[in-house]
Amino acid sequence: MALMDYEKYIVDIPDYPMPGVIFKDITPLFADEQGFTAVVDDIANHFMKAGVTKVVGAEARGFLIGAPVAYKMCAGFVPVRKPGKLPREAFSEQYALEYGTDQLEMHKDSLTPDDRVLIVDDLIATAGTAVATAKLVEKAGATVVGFGFILELAFLHPRQTIGKSFDQDIYTLIKVE
Q1: By residue range, what is the domain housing residue 96?
Q2: Does 113 reside within a domain?
Q3: Which of 59, 61, 138, 159 is catalytic?
């Protein structure tokens, strides 16, 4: 359970990126040494006994939180990128957006069947990125052991979306109802 008041670091930006949307800016949390350290520690400590061997983070803010979580857990870090960004042979997974589709890729040799994977990102909203990332992990033959996020937009029901395909632990530090 999160001990720090992470919400004090989140800045609401009304009408961004479009009218009617309230954007949750987490960059002040990353900029604060105590806040950033607490986020990394909190997520890593929650999953410390899960036997994680790799942390997977999606482009780009998933890199910012995933890499230090991996370091804290003495695990490797694997980036998941947009199409065309990885130089070697990659698995690919398409996923639905509100208006259209997108795609993620991961190097085919980045995970092994022995790997136990924690998927980490800054935000979970509709869960499309998280589910696509988990499917990439499965394509590599590795095992997803959990999902860790800083911010959850619970009103978009991401846990139900993940639950349709995965039943692993979902841990978030801030829930927006």
Answers
A1: 51-176
A2: yes
A3: 61
Enumerate the β-bridge partners of residue 93.
Answer: 104
Contacts of 84 (CB under 8 A, 6+ apart): none
In this structure, which amino acid lies at residue 69? V
Is 33 tagged catalytic? no
Residue 155 inside a domain? The answer is: yes
Residue 123's domain is classified under what CATH number? 3.40.50.2020
Look up 98 and say whether it is catalytic: yes
Overall number of domains in the chain = 1
Select from 68, 96, 92, 71 the least CA-distant residue to 80.
92
Is the residue at 30 inside a domain? no
Q: Is the pTM of this model over 0.90?
A: yes
Is 157 among the domain residues? yes
One of 33, 89, 98, 177 is an active-site residue; which one? Answer: 98
26-75 per-position pLDDT tens digit: 999 999 999 999 999 999 999 999 999 999 999 999 999 999 999 999 99
